[in-house]
Amino acid sequence: QVQLVESGGGLVQAGGSLRLSCAASGRSFSNYAMGWFRQAPGKEREFVGFMLWSGGSTYYADSVKGRFTISVDNDKNTVYLQMNSLRPEDTAVYHCAAGLRLATTPESWHYWGQGTQVTVSS
């Protein structure tokens, strides 16, 4: 199993930047895919981006492409979501996820963090 803990959320003005962290622990997670999703109040959970823990196959939703970047620090067992040029519509609870396959649908991911709130003010 994999345990995931997100951190780094907060309040930022539009145009600003924020970096979210997802600390991973457990057994045999090196072969997992790592994903980021977000959910705004009253909205469905939506895909943000994913990558393999080992690297490669990075893919982002059109809404964040060119602004968000996923990276991994293997020494710290941590996945990051660097968010630049933030917009008010980026406001949501952000969750990291781990799974055995790359997919854009939340249902395809098995392990989830508790989420961290990101609020972008205009």
Please, could you describe this protein's structure?
The protein is mostly beta strands and 122 residues long. 0% of the residues lie in helices and 52% in strands. The protein has strands at residues 2-7, 10-13, 18-26, 33-39, 46-52, 59-60, 68-73, 78-83, 92-99, 111-112, 116-121. A hairpin with a 4-residue loop joins strand 7 and strand 8 (78-83). It is globular and about 40 Å long. The model has no long low-confidence stretch (mean pLDDT 93).
Largest sheet: 7 strands, mixed
- What is the terminal separation in angstroms? 40 Å
Give me the oligomer status: single chain
Q: Low-confidence stretches at least 5 residues in length (pLDDT < 50)?
A: none
Per DSSP, what share of the residues sits in E-state strands of 2 or more residues? over 45%
Helix count from the secondary structure assignment = 0
Annotation keywords:
7-stranded mixed sheet, 11 strands, mainly beta, 0% helix, 122 residues, single chain, 4-stranded antiparallel sheet
Outline the fold blueprint.
Layout: E1 2-7, E2 10-13, E3 18-26, E4 33-39, E5 46-52, E6 59-60, E7 68-73, E8 78-83, E9 92-99, E10 111-112, E11 116-121
Structure at a glance:
The protein is an all-beta fold.
